[in-house]
Amino acid sequence: MAKNKPKELKDYLTLDFSAETVLKNLPFILFIGLIGMMYIMNAHYSEKKLWQIQKYENEIEELKWEYDAIKANLMYQTKQSEVAKVVESIGLKNSTSTPKRITVKKGIEIKGTEE
């Protein structure tokens, strides 16, 4: 029986590009190539997602600004003085008299109501 002698460092460092060695290691080479392609695809995919996230963050920020502007405008337009200016054109005016309280005594029947 012939014993295999242990391999030395120089045996691992020598490059042997014979057809037999290449064919023997072809599945490993294809596997490394596939992993490399997946790594590149993942990098491109994550870069694309980061751009989309940044675009959506900017869009959300612009929508918040627009919301605040519309809200401030609505608050201004619904002030009593602004509403009075708008309805003045159709003939409505602010009341200058104080409101009157209507009291109903117990036991008095109000006409027009059915119970």
Strand-helix topology:
Layout lengths: L8 H5 L5 H6 L1 H52 L2 H9 L27
Provide a brief overview of the structure:
The chain is an all-alpha fold and 115 residues long. The chain has helices at 9-13, 19-24, 26-77, 80-88. The model has no long low-confidence stretch (mean pLDDT 87).
What brief labels describe this structure?
0% strand; single chain; mainly alpha; 4 helices; 115 residues
Explain what you see.
This protein starts with 8 loop residues before the first helix and ends in a 27-residue tail after the last helix. The model has no long low-confidence stretch (mean pLDDT 87). Helix content is 63%, strand content 0%. The protein has helices at 9-13, 19-24, 26-77, 80-88. It is mainly alpha-helical and 115 residues long. It has a domain at 16-88.
Quote the distance from N terminus to C terminus.
Answer: 118 Å
Continuous helix count:
4
Radius of gyration: 43 Å
Strand content: under 5%
- Overall, the morphology is rod-shaped
Rounded average pLDDT: 87
Sheet with the most strands? none
Order of helices and strands: HHHH
Helix content: 55-70%
Strand segment count = 0
User: In terms of per-residue confidence, which ranges show pLDDT below 50 for 5 or more consecutive residues?
Assistant: none
Structural class: mainly alpha
